[in-house]
Amino acid sequence: MRRILIPNRLLNADDGGGGGGDPTPPAAPPSPAPAPVPVPAPALHPTASPAAPPAADTGVATLQARLATLETQLEADRAALRTERGARLIEQTAAAHGLDAGLLGRLVTPEFDEHGQPKPLDTAIASLLTTYPYLAKQSGPGGATTPASAGTSPANPARPPALTKAAIERMTPEQINTNWEAIQAFLARQS
Question: Whole-model pTM?
Answer without folding.
Answer: 0.40
